[in-house]
Amino acid sequence: MHDALLDNPIWSALTTTHARFAPGDDAVKRYPRDIGPFIAVARDTAILPPQALALAQPGEELNLVGHVPRLDAAWRTLHDESLLQMVHTGPVADACDAAGIVELGDAHAEAMLALTALVYPGYFRPRTRILGRYYGVLDRGQLAAMAGERMAVTGCTELSAVCTHPDYLGRGLAHRLVGHVVHAIRQRGLQPYLHVSSRNARAIRVYEASGFVVRRELPLRCVQRNG
Fold first, then answer.
1. Sheet of 134-139, strand order
2. Distance, C-alpha 74 to centroid of its chain
3. Digit-coded pLDDT (tens) for 14-48
4. Structural domain of residue 119, as residue ranges?
5. Rounded distance, CA 201 to CA 196, Å?
6. Helix %, strand %, coil % for the chain, to 5?
């Protein structure tokens, strides 16, 4: 039911549920840079249009996911990667193990930025957390692990920022947090989905154990505005 939307997830988010966060026009849109490094065009757009220059600072790096248009001389490709897009098909539990899990808010903003910068540098920005709900496990004030919601399209919400501090690996925190976020999304009648590098075998195992299956493989291209 959501295939057409999920094939081009950034554009779909910025033209549906997250339209209020979308600077740009009918040809190209992006998330504000303090929310995320993502830009997108409609599926029938063959080349990144010149209007994109107004949305990026010289030297800024941005990511395209799903539909990857050609670039003109104003841009260059930094790298290409293969992502697995996974959707949750497991049973919807009546409840999940929420012991020790807290909802993260303004008081945790610095800790969230520090943890994501350690595990996934560059993707979590100062206002990323306003896109959805984020949850974490604290240990004596230390944010040991977190997970939350990011790109939302009609009917679907993306699970994202699944991070565990290196000192807390192997304790099952990511698995518990994934289950908690999935339950919260399902309770709202929405389909959870996510993106993970095809090379990240450890994370893929966690997601499969949490009821996710691969929907399809999508390209990710990191581009940079010249100048």
1. 61-65, 212-225, 75-88, 191-197, 156-164, 142-153, 134-139, 101-103
2. 26
3. 999 999 999 999 999 999 999 999 999 998 899 99
4. 86-217
5. 9
6. 30, 35, 35
CATH number at residue 182: 3.40.630.30
**CA R_g for the chain:** 17
Q: Please tell me whether residues 95 and 161 are part of one structural domain.
A: yes
Any residues with CB less than 8 A from the CB of 106 and at least 6 apart, and which?
A: none
| Single pTM value for the model | 0.93
219, 82 Cβ separation under 8 angstroms:
yes
Are 8 and 40 contacting, i.e. CB atoms less than 8 angstroms apart? Answer: yes
Enumerate the β-bridge partners of residue 164.
145
d(CA 114, CA 147): 14
